[in-house]
Amino acid sequence: MTPTRPRARKLHILLSDAAYDRLKALNARYGLASHDLVLVLLERLDAYARPAALDRTLRDRASDPTRR
Fold first, then answer.
1. 43 closest CA partner among 8, 14, 4
2. Residues near 61 by beta carbon (within 8 Å), at least 6 away in sequence
3. How many CB atoms within 10 Å of residue 26?
4. Residues 18/19/22/24 CA torsion (nearest 10 deg)
5. Are 43 and 1 in contact (CB under 8 A)?
6. Which residues 6+ apart lie within 8 Å of 23 measured at CB?
7. CA 15, CA 52: separation in Å to the nearest integer?
8. pLDDT tens track of the chain, all 68 residues?
9. N or C: less crowded end of the chain, CB within 10 Å?
């Protein structure tokens, strides 16, 4: 997959403390800004996430009654 140039779109998201800590750890390791990390993680999701595990994880999150 050829990386695409990001469009000027804003996405305001809430992160848990654990997610924020992981994002900051990736930032420290690779020197990429948060928006670049999110872009790479989403664009290349199929390269590192097993489809069945991803499906199970997202379904579990969607059915979690404690989610915000």
1. 4
2. 67
3. 17
4. -110
5. yes
6. 15, 34, 37, 38
7. 24
8. 566 676 767 888 899 999 999 999 999 999 999 989 999 999 999 999 999 999 999 999 999 888 76
9. C
